[in-house]
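Can't paste images in this forum, so I'm doing it all in text. The chain is below; anyone willing to post the predicted structure tokens underneath?
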Amino acid sequence: MIHLYGRKNSINVQKVSWALCELNLDFKWHDENGKFGTVNVKNYEKLNPQLIVPTLDHHGHIITQSNGIVRYLYRKYTNTYTISKAEDIAIAEQWMEFQTTDLQLNMTPVFWGLVRNPPEDRDQELIDKNIKFLNQKFEIFDKFLSDREYILNNQFGMADIIMGVASFRYNSLPIQRPNLSNFQYWYQRINDRECFKKNILGTFG
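Text version of the structure:
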């Protein structure tokens, strides 16, 4: 049995639930409707001493860190790593890390400032600065997508999931965005996927 721990509206948990859906893997969800900052699972610290989400229990093997879990699932259940060139895999993983480091660095203060914090607690200068950087980084991604439908081998895969959850949050923010036609064409393709609709839509907040 596969067990997934973490709330449905966590950007990191979404990566894993979306991947599990795309791979047609049945799993039991724990604390799906939980709240930020807590995990309503008894003795969760024994599974994940960091007390963060997600955690995946894959038939008794405990795995943490969202991007690592998604990589594991794609190694385990697809031929992505065996049929792809090492150089192409490196590019896909580059964008997966781009989401975790570069994008998240600027996404967090914007998301918290405009969505989670009340207006009276907003640091508008900090928010505006990070909106600028966030838009610039999505412009870089937009240029990358100019000659491809998906990130790896023009087939939907793990890197599209990682960048997809970040893109949903980006497109849901109440901010001005530049005209990113390549990005929006790619986003519409993933937006049409049933697993995106099931796991991502309606989870902003």
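Residues 134 and 203 are 21 Å apart (CA to CA). Residues 85-199 form a domain with the Glutathione S-transferase Yfyf (Class Pi); Chain A, domain 2 fold (CATH 1.20.1050.10).
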